[in-house]
Amino acid sequence: MRRHDPNNNNGGAPGHSRRDFLRGSGLAAASAVLTGGATAAVEEAGAVQEVGPKVVSSAVEITLKVNGQEHKATVEPRTTLLDTLRNRLDVTGPKRVCDRASCGACTTIVDGAPVYSCTTLAITCQGKTIETLESFDVGEKGVPHAFHQNDALMCGYCTPGFVTACKAMLDKNPNPTLEEVRKGLDGNICRCGTYIGVLQAALNAAKAMKGA
Ligand code: FES
Ligand code: FES
User: In tens digits, what is the pLDDT along the chain, a chain of 212 residues?
Assistant: First the structure.
């Protein structure tokens, strides 16, 4: 999985938006189930048939490091990170809205990069660092506080994803320009149109975090 390029805060190659990057990550994760690390993980768990095409259907036990703690879960290889977090580990910060890599409500930080957890396979996240909203600083120097202070939400459906994408962006680039904030958050959609508040919250969070 590619990480954010600190010189290109959209998280992908120059000329590509973070949305492109996030979509690419999801597709890469999906294809990885038949190759590389994902297949190795399944083989370890003894779930791959020995003869004929590799049809992976059995549930496997995986270990995920979420917010600094290791958790075991038994999932089918096709199970997404979002389903595993919400339905198996009771980590409900990432939300399911579109469930098809379009809105960003499910954004989760994996090895420092924001990903759409609704299209990321859980088995590909073993051995990686997974961060969700639950681990963020909720004090005055944290990103959630900046969203609250800048009216950066209305219905709130999109907010966990925006907060998470914002945290991932600021971890990579603590001094973003407005344009860099726009690019860093362009994988997320707000149907209520709170973008002005979101952008201001991100800039204010950057200032607050510097004083942390
Ligand atoms: S729920 Fe994952 S991108 Fe919308
Ligand atoms: S606050 Fe309603 S979708 Fe963003």
Answer: 333 333 333 433 445 566 665 555 555 454 444 445 555 555 555 554 555 666 667 899 999 999 999 999 999 999 999 999 999 999 999 999 999 999 999 999 999 999 999 999 999 999 999 999 999 999 999 999 999 999 999 999 999 999 999 999 999 999 999 999 999 999 999 999 999 999 999 999 999 988 75
- 0.90 exceeded by pTM: no
- Residue 71: beta bridge partners? 64
For residue 117, report the distance from its CA to the centre of ligand 1, in Å: 7
Ligand 1 atom nearest to CA at 96:
1
Assign a CATH topology to domain 18-132: Ubiquitin-like (UB roll) (3.10.20)
Beta carbon of 103 within 6 Å of any ligand 1 atom: yes
The encoded tokens of residue 92 equal 């409900």
Shortest-distance atom of ligand 2 to CA 155: 2
Domain ranges of the chain: 18-132, 143-210
CA–CA distance, 181 with 195 (Å, rounded to integer)? 11
CATH of 143-210, one of 3.20.20.70, 1.10.150.120, 3.30.930.10, 1.10.150.20: 1.10.150.120
**Is the CB–ligand 2 distance for residue 151 below 6 Å?**
no
